[in-house]
From TrEMBL:
The keyword Cell cycle applies. The keyword Cell division applies. This is Cyclin-like domain-containing protein. Keywords: Cell cycle, Cell division, Cyclin. InterPro entries: Cyclin, Cyclin-like_dom, Cyclin-like_sf, Cyclin_N, Cyclins_cyclin-box.
Length: 234
């Protein structure tokens, strides 16, 4: 059985007609088990060391490969089902992120994957469970990219879930997300540039933890605005 639907009669085998969710089976999952972390240290000068103007320009060019398709923001601003799907997905991702105390990069990456997928792939309107499965898969991939210790993907299904999925099902959806995003998962984020700009504004002196924390709060606060999408920083 691919999916346990709480309050519904569907099974994932009902969803495998969607390209058979890539038509790939999953082997044993390799996942470290542990607890989350605050993650602030990981975003101060992390991901890519940025210390020159040339590096910043190169990263800004790379950033264009990790944004939603053109027209996606306008579609959301018009409202409708797609907007409500993204709002509900973001609300759930934020709750689970807080529950496990994952780092801020994990949250940003999960939403980045969600937006890029929704802008490129038409989810069926008559399969609400698939939207929740997408949220689980995006968060699971982000956690695998960023966290050093993490729960099993099936254990991410907390905080008022309507459907519950097996590990094999989540793995198949992860593969569909990976294929749709062309395996471009190491996204350039605003956190990439924190150390560079704080160094510029601070006269070359090491930034205080409070200042770095404030930058992180601003980025996450902007991300949680349901009508805003991650855009190029410059």
């Amino acid at each position: 059985m691919g999916i346990l639907c709480l309050g519904a009669s569907s099974t994932l085998l009902c969803g495998e007609d969607r390209n058979n969710v890539l038509g790939l089976g999953c082997g044993n999952e390799l996942v470290e088990v542990g607890s989350g972390h605050d993650g602030l240290d990981s975003v101060v000068g992390a991901v890519f060391p940025v210390d020159t103007d040339e590096a910043v320009r190169a990263l800004l060019e790379k950033e264009t490969d990790h944004k939603p398709q053109d027209g996606y923001a306008e579609r959301l601003e018009r409202g409708g089902l797609e907007y409500s799907w993204r709002r509900d997905a973001m609300d759930w991702i934020c709750k689970v992120h807080s529950y496990y105390r994952f780092g801020p990069l994990s949250l940003y990456l999960a939403v980045n994957y969600l937006d890029r997928f929704l802008s490129s792939y038409d989810l069926p309107h008559d399969k609400p469970w698939m939207r929740q499965l997408l949220s689980v898969a995006c968060l699971a991939l982000a956690v695998k990219m960023e966290e050093t210790v993490l729960p099993l993907p099936v254990d991410l299904q907390v905080c008022d879930v309507k459907f519950e999925f097996e590990a094999r099902t989540i793995g198949r959806m992860e593969l569909l997300v990976l294929a749709t995003l062309k395996w471009r998962m190491q996204a350039v984020t605003p956190f990439t540039f924190i150390s560079y700009f704080l160094d510029k504004f601070n006269g070359g002196k090491p930034p205080s933890l409070a200042l770095a924390s404030r930058c992180t709060d601003i980025i996450i606060g902007t991300l949680k605005d349901h009508l805003r999408l991650p855009r190029p920083q410059l």
